[in-house]
Specification:
By secondary structure, this protein is of the alpha/beta class. It has one domain: 3-Layer(aba) Sandwich (Rossmann fold). Helix content is about 40%, strand content about 15%. Helix 1 crosses helix 6. It is globular.
């Protein structure tokens, strides 16, 4: 299993430690893990030039920073996005990266391999908001074309991992173990559901009449998606 992890933070707090628990439970002899940490690996803020949409992703002024992360995502079997909850949302650094992934959304140029992957969203909060973060991260998975995603959100009622009581850590580990087992069970067996297929078909109809963005239309033509083929 190839796993790409995009950490929404650089410090190793509760969210990071829970993600590491998942990685330990998903361990195997053939496991390959690539990790990126925001803000260390965060590109500068998107400038809204639309080059990625209109001219291709390599024309993005931040392509040298963005594309290594994108390639890791596209090569992975499991994609993990994690972020602590900051003011009821993901970290700004992670959002900055995800802004650069807009061209890979289904209305534009989704990668064919995305329709075979599994996603996992992880978030913690000292109080409320962790579920809101994982819901938002899973929305990105959906529009990338990932057919199956899971979430783990925990309001830990502590400002750091060291302050989490041992009993709560034990419960968290049991929950992580169960969810990791579900992920392993679905590996290589995921298929898009009706919602993904419907959105994809709708985007195909849009691309058939697309006379304003040659880069997007060429992508769909090249993959045969306007001739009846599907990426799954």
């Amino acid at each position: 299993m190839k796993i790409a992890v995009i950490h929404g933070q650089q410090h190793k707090g509760s969210t990071y430690n829970i993600t590491k628990l998942f990685l330990n439970k998903l361990a195997g002899e053939n496991r390959e893990i690539v990790e990126f940490f925001m803000p260390r690996d965060t590109p500068p803020s998107c400038v809204g030039c639309c080059n990625c949409f209109m001219k291709g992703e390599l024309k993005c002024p931040h392509a040298e920073i963005v594309q290594p992360v994108v390639r890791a995502i596209e090569e992975a079997d499991l994609v993990i996005l994690d972020s602590p909850c900051y003011v009821l949302g993901m970290t700004g650094q992670l959002k900055t990266f995800l802004d650069h992934m807009g061209y890979r959304w289904m209305p534009h140029r989704p990668h064919p391999q995305m329709f075979r992957k599994i996603g996992l969203a992880v978030s913690t909060a000292a109080g409320a908001g962790a579920k809101k973060v994982t819901k938002e991260l899973r929305r990105h998975f959906f529009y990338w074309g990932i057919p199956k995603s899971f979430s783990y959100a925990k309001n830990i009622r502590a400002t750091n991992w060291e302050m989490v009581p041992a009993k709560k850590k034990a419960r968290i580990e049991k929950e992580v173990t169960r969810l990791a087992a579900k992920i392993l069970k679905r590996q290589g067996k995921v298929k898009p559901g009706m919602k993904t297929k419907a959105i994809f078909k709708l985007m195909g109809l849009m691309q058939k009449s697309n006379d304003w963005n040659p880069a997007d239309r060429e992508h769909w033509v090249k993959n045969g998606w306007l001739s009846g083929k599907n990426p799954w």
